[in-house]
Amino acid sequence: MFVSKYLVLITIAVSHFCCNGQQFLQRTRFRRLNKPSGFKLKQRLQEKLNQYKQRTMQTICYDIVGCFELPHKRSPLQKVPENPDVLGTKFYLFKRSTNLSHPEILNYDDEGKSLANSSFNYTLPMKMIIHGYMGKWNDIGNLIGANTYLKIYDCNVILMDWSLGARGPQYAMAAANTEVVGRQLGILLLKMIENGLKPENIHLLGFSLGAHVAGSSSEVLKKKGHLIERITGLDAASPLFRTNHLKEKHKKLDREDARLVDVIHTDASPTVTDGFGLWEPIGHVDFFPNGGQEQPGCTDTKQSVVVTHFDKTLSREVACSHIRAWRLFQETLLNKAAGGQNRCDFTAFSCPGGLKSFERGFCFPDLPKPNTSLALDSSYRNDIGRFGEDVKGEGVMFFATRATPPYCGTQIQASIHISPKTGVIKGIILLNLQYPHHSVSFHINCDADDLILTGTVMSGLAVSDYGTLNDNVKNITATLNFVDLDLEEENNNTYIPTIYIDKVVIRDMYGNRWQFCQKDTVLKDTTGLNHNFSITLTKNGCL
Description:
Layout: H1 2-33, H2 38-56, E1 59-62, E2 66-69, H3 84-87, E3 90-94, E4 104-106, H4 113-116, E5 126-130, H5 140-152, E6 156-161, H6 171-194, E7 202-207, H7 209-222, E8 230-234, E9 260-264, E10 285-289, H8 304-308, H9 320-338, E11 346-349, H10 354-359, E12 384-387, E13 395-399, E14 410-418, E15 427-435, E16 438-446, E17 457-464, E18 475-484, H11 485-490, E19 498-508, E20 513-524, E21 533-539
Parallel strand pairs: 5-6, 5-7, 7-8, 8-9, 9-10, 10-13
Antiparallel strand pairs: 1-2, 3-4, 3-6, 11-12, 14-17, 14-19, 15-16, 15-18, 18-21, 19-20, 20-21
């Protein structure tokens, strides 16, 4: 019985196939001929994934600015962006005809009415300064920046006010608000472009969290096919923006947000718990002054992210290196406004060996004399750049600064040639240069991983007062001290190592050299002793 039923089923199936086999083969052939390409298949999969995310991901929506993804409940450091009605974001417009104490107020949510009633000039460039965490639109630095821009250009200058969104003490909330505030800015920029402002005339400058506000605003414009000319990121904030796991790419600044994204890193750190600024390069050109970590003249607290952002305290002393980013840029504006060809520029340079080579003073360029046709000419060489308003550069670049204003000066390199008579040691050479009415100091380090070996050249970088170390200086007096780290660690005073110096060379970027040459000159560790070893370096000596 069972077998007969089974045979009947087989007979029906075979009969069905025979009757419809030709149609089946045709359908199969058609499917193969119309099989989606790899790109279309990937596109379909992405659409399915997006539909799945929309079904599973919760969002919060606000009028005008749209919807935002809600963070996972188990993500305590990520917050829901606040209601735009609570934030009260405004934009203050300054023109040359404007009294600085009475700027015009622009709103993003009035369908362009305040913009239409303002004196905004769509034929002129527009500069916008965006403050950071716990900042205000009318901080003195922002007002100086606005006033200086108006001295340099006939332009529109806008100071963005998102102080309620950036208020403390909860940094995580301010970080979440950058996305909603960025959309508010994007909506205003889009209205400006629709009214005739060219995207190539837009330059946004964002400090700290303000850099990510600028990055988020670009998403609104890119969806409409617009890419603005330039975004300058002034030590773009690192906490909660460090990886794409915490903040997706479209919620923070990156090189796709403008035709030119130039970034300065002044308080970066490879350690998650330290450094307010991003460690990773994110722009078309990324400047790392003094290596991009603690800046000279600052005594930043180690593990500063822990003791400030999450302990709800912040001071200018703790954030000294972070704030330096804006002060360095501001100095380039002031120098440009002062005019004159003989102004100081932050000349930057590439370093093939990376940060370690820069810190050891091994990277230092040879440039043509200033004000020549080849100086800083991008067609001449691309390893030289310039930080600031008149930015030039590509990739990761370095430069050194002074510890106090003015931060810009003449960058110089010291090279100390060690004699083969010297044994293996490690330590620091303290080199102080004295020339008429000025001095400059080097700390030339050699740590445990970088021992001084026989025949080694030790180098370091420093910055002299601008224009003081020039062709007119024929002689430089130098004092040297050697501090032996092994001796200090071992607390052993029975042995004082000796190093022998063959040559000391000081040079600037423009081919000027001062040299001391005397083989096997003895330099002993003078720790605890009250005398310095002195030499005289002569212009173009030892040839």
